[in-house]
Amino acid sequence: MRGAATWAAGLIALLAAHAATAQEVHGPVVVELFTSQGCSACPPADALLGELARREDVIALALHVDYWDYIGWQDTFAQPAFTARQHGYGHAAGSTVVYTPQMIVGGSDRVVGVRPMAVSDLVQLHRATPDPVSIAISADGDGFAVETQTLTAPPFARMVVQVVSYSPHNEVNIAHGERAGTVSQHFNVVTSWQVVGEWDGQAPMRFRVIPQQDDPHVVIVQQADHGPILAAARLD
Questions:
Q1: How far apart are CA 78 and CA 67, in angstroms?
Q2: Long-range contacts made by residues 138-142, C-beta under 8 angstroms, separation at least 24?
Q3: β-bridge mates for residue 67, sequence order
Q4: Residue 125 has pLDDT above 90, yes or no
Q5: What is the pLDDT, as a whole number, of residue 1?
Q6: CB-based contacts of 194: which residues, under 8 Å, 6+ apart?
Q7: Comparing C-alpha atoms, which of 30, 178, 36 is closest to residue 100?
Q8: Which runs of E-coded beta strand occur in 78-158?
């Protein structure tokens, strides 16, 4: 009987471990590039983001800032909100200085300049860590039904649920400034970054997204105040 009890206990432990493993989610890693058409150092970073955009395990997003506009060329994709977002990341890291180009991996790791291996290593590191939140998406008439759910035990950090749309590829003829006479290539340019709402994680959050344009969309769950990105998923 003791052997049978030991075997049963082992089986229960094995099933529990399997259930825990089955619950793990390893979603795509969000890489945000803060860039500008007027920044002469940015084209290699734009090209690197284009390479990342081809990866299924990465959601690559280009956020164009406006603080380079004064040097002679106004970025056609820049939004003050993206500049504010970059400053928000800086404040979260205890810094008031921002750089272009700069990549933020997973909402927490910062890479200044063009450092492909550093970015690749960070993506691999984030991919190896299970997401603490799951995002379930299903087609729902003219839109999508979305449900977010926590996969860890409380207490939960305050979270922000966001929907982002982006334009996959754009060419821009630069007529003035440091890069006058060149053609600028841009990938996954963010066109809209909307906050659906805050979430405390106590119960699943459910909402619908009805795309207003043909651009691809993603859902991002992030710790509030520019904290780590906890989960991300493509809508379409």
A1: 9
A2: 140/208, 142/210
A3: none
A4: yes
A5: 47
A6: 162, 163, 164
A7: 36
A8: 102-105, 109-112, 133-140, 143-150
Phi, psi of 123 (to 5 degrees): -60, -45
Question: Could you give the CA distance from residue 183 to residue 179 in angstroms, rounded to a whole number?
Answer: 9
**Structure token digits, residue 12:** 């229960």
pLDDT, one tens digit per residue, over 179-213 is 999 999 999 999 999 999 999 999 999 999 998 88
Beta-sheet strands, E only, within 2-158: 29-35, 58-64, 102-105, 109-112, 133-140, 143-150
Q: List, for residues 210-224, the tens digit of each pLDDT value.
A: 988 889 999 999 999
User: What does the alpha-carbon distance between residue 76 and residue 69 come to, in Å, rounded to a whole number?
Assistant: 10
Q: Please state, in angstroms and rounded to a whole number, the distance separating the CA atoms of residues 148 and 221.
A: 8
